[in-house]
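Researcher: We are triaging several targets before committing to wet-lab work. For this one, the compound of interest is fe (ii) ion. I'm pasting the protein sequence and the ligand SMILES. What I need is the predicted three-dimensional arrangement of the protein with the ligand bound, expressed as structure tokens, so it can go straight into our comparison scripts without reformatting.
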Amino acid sequence: MRFTYLMPTRVESGNGISEKTGEMIKELGITRILIVTDKGVRTANLLEGIERSLLAANVNYDIYDEVEPNPSTETIHKGTEYLKHYKSDAVLAVGGGSSIDTAKGIALMATNPGHILDYEGVGKIKFPPLPIIAIPTTAGTGSEATNSTVVTNKETSFKLGVLSPYLFPTLAILDPALTLQLPQGITAATGMDALTHAIESYTSKAANPVSQGFAMQAIKMIGENLTKAYFVGTDIESREKMLVASLIAGVAFSQSRLGNVHAISHTFGGVFNIPHGIANAALLPFVMKFNLPACAEQYKEIAIALGKDVAGLSTSQAAEKAIEAVIEMNQAMNIPLNIKDLGVSLEFLPKLIEDSMKSGNVFVNPRLTKPADIELMIEKAYYGILDDSITESPNKLALAPIEANNRSEEVLRPGVISTI
Ligand SMILES: [Fe+2]
């Protein structure tokens, strides 16, 4: 078995630890930093303790708070201008995945020429970005421990990925106190995003024993803590465990990539601006159903990790229990059991299929996936049909042939896959 494991990010975790941000940044030799965040984080006063610690450590800072959900290439370029104007020598992301991904884009564009679109794909960054420090305020994205950033090209409504070992943050600071105020809807969506990362990573064709160890631990921790964090938002213990689990899932998928859920959900973000986590949560059972014949043994293990009793069941019956567990979590947290209710429209089906197939995540999905499979998965998810009552697309689009994935090692080599 040939694999690489790389995770160079230093992690500091603990309740209240964000109050030591200034000290830690000072130790890194950084004297001027750009905080990248959104207006919601500022309104919720989540920057207060961090700013205090920066002032105490004599670290100068400026704030760029224009990050939006599904951040655009323009937001990154504007932030880069801010950074250059203030001559900051590092970026400090405080927020959800959008803020961390924007900060990564800014750090990259501060030291590399051209446009962010020039770096789409794997391993295209030429020069090391500025140091990236990430303080997540949601427990989901895992971006504080990953080698990628996802950006929306508004002109094409396409979410593209930039992957490079350079994009691992230098330092990730996990402070559960910053997640206590998260509303239920965001807790649910981001937590299910983390679960999707862990499940897709565990079953990815590019998984290795190290990434699978991380992924399984994340699945267990999310199963045990997500609904508790949702129903008792002030419970510091479950908030802390979710934050750690989300990071662990990030470590896992930065080694293995993801699968069809992310391939499809990124198109929902790009075309309909649907929040990433909720799109994943609603799609996950349908993609799992499709994948089940290819990874029943692994789904059985996931079912057990999610607390299901599989005694006396066949492997495929036990695997179904993993899907059942995911649906129960969605139901408990008021997540729709179809994607129609999220605002997905089948009018854009050809683009959704085409853009999904561009994703490198399709290549590592456990089951061979063709355009017609993506079409049927989207349609079944749209109508909320999980069983086998439909085996052929009701729309049957006349799709242009798009090359399907295959199991050859060729497609798994870094640099071959073009987008996230
Ligand atoms: Fe995700």
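Researcher: Any quick observations?
Model: Strands lie at 10-13, 32-36, 60-64, 91-95, 121-122, 132-136, 148-153, 158-163, 171-174.
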